[in-house]
Amino acid sequence: MNLNLRPMQLEELGVVIGYFHGASAEHLETLGVDPTRLPEPGKWRQLYQHEYEQPIERRRSFILLWELEGQALGFSTVDKVRFGNEAYMHLHVANPDLRQAGHGSACVRRSVDIFFEVLKLQRLYCEPNAFNVAPNRTLQKAGFRYVKTHMTVPGPLNFHQAVTQWVVERKASLSQ
């Protein structure tokens, strides 16, 4: 299995935008995403372009592309970045045929190491929808520690929902 993780290039952002805009209403609901909050693709690309123009220390987000055998498998993003301190991670296996195939926890472990390295983080949180079993199991399997379950609006694309908060701290390297 040839698994490669790397920073997503600006011209590859169609993977993210297409994933959300091409998802069924049911899948978006599982993710806790309100389809009415999805930016129009051109506007979304402009928002990302502005973010990519910022020095890494000033970015509020960062995206990794997950590739399997040279093809896009999925991606992991962080937002609410406080450089040198903490960020919030999101994980998505974009190819539906490759979901529940065991790739997620390996990708998450490697994503954590890259986010810690590039953004100099001390801790990384993840708050998937509490009723979305797959990411919650993946995070636990990847070595994240359960913190709590609470009600919130986790991000600008989301509706108010129950989320399960997970954390991993820098001293607990996941790829070892």
Relative helix content: 25-40%
What is the tally of beta strands? 7
- Rg: 15 Å
Proportion of beta-strand residues: 25-35%
Unreliable sequence segments = none
Number of domain modules: 1
CATH domain topology: Aminopeptidase
Number of helices: 5
What does this structure look like?
The structure is a single chain. The protein is built from five helices and seven strands, in the order βαααβββαβαββ. It has a seven-stranded mixed sheet with strand order 1-2-3-4-5-7-6, covered by helices on one side. The two termini are 18 Å apart. The protein has one domain: Aminopeptidase (3-Layer(aba) Sandwich). It is globular. The chain is of the alpha+beta class and 176 residues long.
Features:
176 residues, alpha+beta, Aminopeptidase, 5 helices, globular
Topology:
Elements: E1 3-7, H1 14-21, H2 25-31, H3 41-52, E2 62-68, E3 71-82, E4 86-93, H4 103-119, E5 123-126, H5 133-141, E6 145-152, E7 161-169
Give a summary of the structure in a few sentences.
30% of the residues lie in helices and 30% in strands.
